[in-house]
């Protein structure tokens, strides 16, 4: 195995800038790793070999030329990245993990992809996901499940399990994901990686295939807090193409990650996001993290968010309702899969019905039906309207909690990675995996998951939440805990995997 794939993005950037290694060498090392292990992991749906090497060659040429051309290179130029296959890209298929979009080629780039291209970060390919981001395990992909690099018989989280698994398996140093109810943070937790959901509107959603527009957010996946901060600075910022985009500057996120100091910081422990329903091993790692933070000078306070207990129910009304509306465009008429009914008459309605029946999987159909029902005449106020009122109560709970604490902390997920197939027949049990991550999406606040140790030999995630627009606090707190734990372990959590990256 090539040692280059074990370096963080920040380390690779430094080596590239010092000309200790070429961008082509870095990209090829990761392409070789993908070829070696992805047959088992199934993190990638498409590998972008030719373009990735071409971009790497451009970076090497510019650095070799020196002068102004080299000076214009972004700090992460030449550092490769994987892209969740929900984010549209020119020149690569965008399938959303669905048969409905098998082989579909986008005519435009998402805003975040435009920024990745401008930074000359070679894109290694598109990663697997639950179909249209609907799931918590990456088992609901039309292209087969992704496997957790720590244990190939277990799930890598979802919906962005492909991005998290690629990073954890050393197939990519960085990845982009999307987070609607925890789809970046929960996969990060169960794979021992770092995942960030930025403040809603802090990163443009233009070009991300929408599931629930008021909840979706693109964010970084990495192996270190600093790497996520560096990528966040690349993709963040105002975008006039996104009507929900904030006008705030991105801020000095990498500086906050490098500071990593919690002395004097008030950290609020959310009473409702621990205890009953959380595995004993998860709770133990969480309690140990609190003690480390307290020892580093943080003030640990308990806060109560009583309406969080209703967040899961509200989310699973709001999200399917918005998904039902957003997925109406996939009708077999304009683009995507088209299935013609075998018998006459041939009408648009029958083509739409046949195409959607064949193109959507069970979980997508389940959520469309639920959402359509919640929005139907006579039920809108009782279901969708009531869920939006709960959303307001959750936002008020956050406001009250942040009046007492600078950041909040909880386990990212109540359990470690479960076995593939274990919860496929029990959707409600699957939905419970998002209990700790969903409140942030309902309120639009930022969250980060950092590796918190092992329980039963599997990774546990620790989640920090901050007020809207205060993403820098996440990086400061997350980096502090990361350092405290790595000092305790003697190195990164992934170094404790049975085999490097967990793949034999």
From TrEMBL:
A Pfam entry, by short name: Amidase
EC number: 6.3.5.7
PROSITE patterns linked: AMIDASES
Domain Amidase: 25-474
Domain of life according to the entry: Bacteria
Reactions catalysed: L-glutamyl-tRNA(Gln) + L-glutamine + ATP + H2O = L-glutaminyl-tRNA(Gln) + L-glutamate + ADP + phosphate + H(+)
Cited NCBIfam families: gatA
Function: Allows the formation of correctly charged Gln-tRNA(Gln) through the transamidation of misacylated Glu-tRNA(Gln) in organisms which lack glutaminyl-tRNA synthetase. The reaction takes place in the presence of glutamine and ATP through an activated gamma-phospho-Glu-tRNA(Gln).
Protein name as it appears in the record: Glutamyl-tRNA(Gln) amidotransferase subunit A
Species of origin: Arthrobacter hankyongi
Lineage: Bacteria, Bacillati, Actinomycetota, Actinomycetes, Micrococcales
């Amino acid at each position: 195995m090539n040692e280059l794939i074990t370096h963080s993005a920040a380390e690779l950037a430094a080596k590239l800038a010092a000309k200790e290694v070429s961008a082509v060498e870095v990209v090829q090392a990761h392409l070789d790793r993908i070829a070696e292990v992805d047959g088992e992991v199934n993190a990638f749906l498409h590998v972008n070999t030719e373009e990735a090497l071409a971009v790497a060659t451009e970076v090497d040429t510019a650095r070799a030329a020196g002068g102004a051309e080299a000076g214009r290179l972004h700090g992460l130029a030449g550092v490769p990245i994987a892209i969740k296959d929900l984010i549209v890209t020119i020149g690569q298929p965008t399938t959303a993990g669905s048969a409905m979009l098998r082989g579909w080629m986008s005519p435009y780039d998402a805003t975040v992809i435009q920024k990745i291209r401008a930074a000359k970060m070679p894109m290694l390919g598109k990663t697997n996901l639950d179909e249209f981001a609907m799931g918590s395990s990456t088992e609901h992909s039309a292209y087969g499940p992704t496997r957790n690099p720590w244990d190939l018989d277990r799930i890598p989280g979802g919906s962005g399990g492909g991005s998290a698994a690629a990073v954890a398996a050393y197939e990519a140093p960085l990845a982009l994901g999307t987070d609607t109810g925890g789809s970046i943070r929960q996969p990060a937790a169960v794979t021992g990686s770092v995942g960030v959901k930025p403040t809603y509107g802090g990163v443009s959603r233009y070009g991300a295939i929408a599931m629930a527009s008021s909840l979706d957010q693109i964010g970084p996946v990495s192996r270190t807090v600093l790497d996520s901060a560096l990528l966040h600075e690349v993709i963040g910022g105002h975008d006039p193409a996104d009507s929900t985009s904030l006008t705030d500057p991105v801020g000095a996120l990498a500086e906050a990650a490098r500071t990593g100091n919690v002395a004097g910081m008030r950290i609020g422990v959310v009473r409702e996001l621990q205890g009953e329903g959380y595995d004993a091993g998860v709770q133990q790692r969480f309690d140990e993290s609190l003690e480390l933070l307290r020892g580093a000078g943080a003030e640990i306070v308990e806060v109560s968010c009583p309406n969080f207990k209703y967040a899961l129910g509200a989310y699973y009304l709001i999200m399917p309702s918005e998904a039902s509306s957003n997925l109406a465009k996939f009708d077999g008429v304009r683009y995507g899969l088209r299935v013609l009914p075998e018998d006459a008459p041939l009408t648009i309605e029958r083509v739409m019905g046949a195409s959607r029946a064949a193109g959507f999987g069970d979980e997508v159909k389940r959520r469309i039906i639920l959402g359509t029902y919640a929005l139907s005449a006579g039920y809108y106020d009782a279901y969708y309207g009531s869920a939006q009122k709960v959303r307001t109560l959750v936002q008020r709970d956050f406001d009250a909690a942040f009046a007492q604490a600078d950041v909040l902390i909880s386990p990212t997920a109540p359990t470690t990675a479960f076995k593939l197939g274990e919860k496929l027949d029990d959707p409600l049990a699957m939905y419970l995996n998002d209990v700790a991550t969903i409140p942030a999406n309902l309120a639009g606040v930022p969250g980060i998951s950092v590796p918190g140790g092992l329980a039963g030999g599997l990774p546990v995630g620790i989640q920090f939440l901050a007020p809207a627009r205060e993403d820098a606090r996440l990086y400061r707190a997350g980096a502090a805990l990361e350092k405290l734990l790595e000092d305790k372990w003697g190195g990164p959590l992934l170094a404790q995997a049975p085999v490097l990256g967990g793949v034999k």
